[in-house]
Amino acid sequence: MAQYTFEPFKIKSVEAIPLTTREEREQWIADAGYNIFRLPSRAVTIDFLTDSGTSAMSDHQWAGMLEGDEAYAGSHNYFHLQQVVRDLFGFEQFVPTHQGRGAEQVLFNVLVKPGNIVPNNTHFDTTRANIEAIGGVALDLVIPEGLDPTNRHPFKGNMHLANLEQTIERVGVENIPLAMMTITNNAVGGQPVSLANIRATKELLARYKIPFFIDACRYAENCYFIQQREDGYRHKSIPEIAREIFSYADGFTMSAKKDGLVNIGGLLAARDPGLFEKIQNRLILTEGFISYGGLARRDLEAMARGLLEATDEKYLAYRIGQVRYLAERLLEMGIPIVEPPGGHAVFLDAKRFLPHIPQSQFPALALTIALYLEGGIRAVEIGSVMFAKQDPATGETRYAALELVRLAIPRRVYTQSHLDYVAEVIGEVYRQREAIRGVKIVWEAPLLRHFTAKFEMV
Ligand code: P70
Known about the structure:
Layout: H1 22-31, E1 46-47, H2 59-66, H3 76-89, E2 94-97, H4 100-111, E3 117-120, H5 125-133, E4 137-140, H6 161-171, E5 179-182, H7 195-207, E6 212-215, H8 219-229, H9 238-247, E7 251-255, E8 266-270, H10 273-286, H11 297-309, H12 313-332, E9 345-349, H13 350-353, H14 363-375, E10 377-378, E11 380-382, H15 384-387, E12 389-390, E13 397-398, E14 404-408, H16 416-431, E15 439-443, E16 454-457
Parallel strand pairs: 1-10, 3-4, 5-6, 6-7
Antiparallel strand pairs: 2-8, 7-8, 9-14, 11-14, 12-13, 15-16
Helix pairs in contact: 1-14, 2-11, 3-11, 4-5, 4-10, 8-9, 12-16, 14-16
Residues 49-50, 52, 99-101, 124, 126-127, 182, 186, 215, 217, 255, 257, 266, 380, 408 line the site of ligand P70.
């Protein structure tokens, strides 16, 4: 039987969970055009849509909110955040942003030109879209193990270094304004990247003088995996590992809605003074002044405190343990998932779960709908609705490499019995899997279509 690492906190405030009937859910999901993003949260019993901005803040963070000094410029909460960014990441120059994509938008607008290429281990949806919106090309270069759901490589998020070098040689340094590394690698299953791989990526890029940026939203979870799995790090603390990771970076973007343990907020940091000046100017134009970046100052205080709390080893052991617990319960029932489980979510492998549904009928979305209908669980499709592309030359559809359903677990929100309920619901859906039908798109937006598209059952 799977082991559970108990919560290193007790509950001070509670929020009621909506309970619904199957008839109600059938109505809700049809009204939502079969898109779980269109469901009102009062129709959802267990909300595993995302771990982003959905965490529970601590009493210490809430107390900090009351200490928000709502000055437009130079609030003391900004200086507290500056101290934390310096201590944790070793960066002197940073700006707050309203969330991760705010940082991406500012960075790419000052660095990326149409036709430029931006390699990454794997871009997530908004990073890719913000590069493409400028006319750039977002390139995914994860190692092949990362695309094999059953391969138990300990660092499946790693960058494919040979492919990165070949890419640089092929397209030319002048066409690559920066390269990125997403830790953990969300799109392939919340999989970690090793410190050896981060160091080697930096060394390779440094030889070509290409700036190296980290997409840092789940960096603390990545640090925990390094501590547990990588030779030489067993006795290093999480902040020590973080300092080493970021010592290799020329800058980073971060959605603090993940390992910042806040409901809203982000960060953008860069070492180069010339670049940082451009960042500040763009930030003032689009996000806000440099000492608040689109956030209330109370939000900066919550972020400063949350960033520190997320590096606590007892918290991380519970956090990663919770994801592993759900994964093991599903594996005990023979349910196909991405193995080993990653840091923030369990990913169901829809290609193996629903082999009778072709990719043209979006098996991962079909499974997402089935989970909602069976138990009011809201998961998210990370497959061809999110990532399929039209080949510009032939007009043919290139489907996503993986068809996954992500069960993203909000931090410090759900307990073991919630996870047991989720496992039972998925077990029931698995028993009835042959009856699940595919879906087709009836309406879609030109960019980031997954958020708003409407579907019909085939
Ligand atoms: C998620 C959300 C956000 C994200 C990320 C990485 C590696 C940047 C960002 C942008 C997005 C999402 C997906 C499905 C449902 C809801 C939300 N990821 N880099 O859940 O950050 O959202 O703050 O602008 O994962 O993975 P932000």
